[in-house]
TrEMBL record:
This is Inosine-uridine nucleoside N-ribohydrolase. It comes from the Bacteria. The keyword Hydrolase applies. Gene3D superfamilies: Ribonucleoside hydrolase-like. InterPro entries: Inosine/uridine_hydrolase_dom, IUNH, Ribo_hydro-like. Keywords: Glycosidase, Hydrolase. SUPFAM superfamilies: Nucleoside hydrolase. It holds the Pfam family IU_nuc_hydro. It comes from Spirosoma utsteinense. Residues 37-271 form the Inosine/uridine-preferring nucleoside hydrolase domain.
Length: 340
């Protein structure tokens, strides 16, 4: 214990103000990246992806290697066009412009279509970006691929270059409940929404690879409830970015009323755990220590998008509880600091 305390005091003594082009945080220390992330999300769909991206762009402990706009299910009500991935990349660029962030982060579109089966990868610039980043040898920063929708690009990258499987960790928002861990919600969709975007891709990731997976299934991502009151008080006043995010969500709420759908006074920002589990890991013995998970053998995903027990599955993390307090308070604070 004595040596540990001495180490802490030594570390604190080294934290002096530094003139830097990086992102300064309150206090004397300058936070620098300790991991790389590739963000893959359906930004032209549910606006929760835009909230997640804004939060990540404001998080100095991550180095964003690339942003990928991904497709939805064909005919999806959020974007029923044939150019969903291109539209998603455009929305990501729009957010970066609104936030006035000067960056050279590549923003690319993935495939506009799902994989034809679980053996044939799609071809896209995004797939090549993932492979190139995973194969880098000029950095020791660990790589996380953050998927808030379907798994088309990461599955295709693994099929095209199987050697990258042990060079990254996939954090995925998606998949139904595990029956012994949680019950599905009333009137639940089957298959689960994100898994159903590309069932073939999910079958590749779960059934055919050894890639580490941190999964946030439906029962966990539904915990990320943002009250409408907080949207108005904590987000809307925060400059152009706050207004942009608030308008994106309110626009959707208005559209839903046209279909006689009353969603009440909360909204599920289900993609935000992608930030919580990476940028907001603990200081020492780094890990998402304030959230809870169990270790499970990866289930086999069948052609209908359902789990099947597989004794040959490798161990994966399945998150059961997420620390929404840390996640949201950090987001609100970063928006406020940016607006200053």
């Amino acid at each position: 214990m004595t040596n540990y305390i001495c180490f802490i005091f030594l570390l604190c003594s080294l934290m002096e103000p530094i003139a830097s082009s990086g992102q300064p945080m309150p206090g004397k220390a300058i936070v620098t990246p300790r991991m790389r992330v590739i963000v893959d999300n359906d930004f032209s769909g549910d606006p929760d992806g835009l909230f997640q991206l804004a939060h990540l762009l404001l998080s100095p402990s991550v180095e964003i290697s690339a942003i990928i706009g991904s497709h939805l299910k064909a005919g999806d009500g959020f974007d029923n066009s044939a150019m969903q991935a291109d539209n998603a990349a455009r929305k990501a660029r729009e957010l970066v412009q609104v936030m006035a962030i000067k960056t050279n982060i590549p923003i690319v579109a993935g495939s506009n279509k799902a994989m034809p089966n679980d053996s044939i990868p799609v071809a896209s610039e995004a797939v090549n970006v993932i492979i190139k980043e995973a194969m880098r040898t000029d950095t020791q920063l660990p790589l996380y691929v953050l998927c808030g929708a379907g798994l088309t690009e990461i599955a295709s990258a693994i099929l095209k270059a199987p050697q990258i499987a042990d060079k990254l960790t996939l954090v995925w928002i998606g998949g139904p409940e595990y029956p012994d861990l949680a019950l599905p919600p009333p009137n639940y969709t089957n298959p689960e929404y994100n898994l159903n975007i590309d069932i073939a891709a999910a079958r590749v990731v779960f059934n055919k690879t050894s890639m580490p997976i941190w999964q946030v299934p439906r029962n966990a991502y539904r915990q990320a409830l943002l009250p409408y009151s907080q949207l108005q008080v904590q987000i809307r006043p925060q400059g152009k970015t706050g207004a942009y995010l608030c308008n994106a969500l309110e626009s959707l709420m208005t559209r839903l009323t046209q279909y006689k759908l009353n969603i009440g006074e909360t909204y599920i920002l289900g993609d935000s755990p992608l930030v919580l589990l990476t940028a907001l890991q603990s200081s020492f013995e780094a890990d998402p220590s304030s959230s809870e998970y169990v270790i499970r053998l990866a289930p086999k995903i069948n052609s209908l998008g359902a789990y099947e027990y597989s004794p040959a599955g490798r161990p994966i993390r399945v998150y059961t509880r997420i620390d929404t307090s840390l996640m949201f308070t950090d987001f609100f604070a970063k928006l406020s600091l940016m607006n200053r």
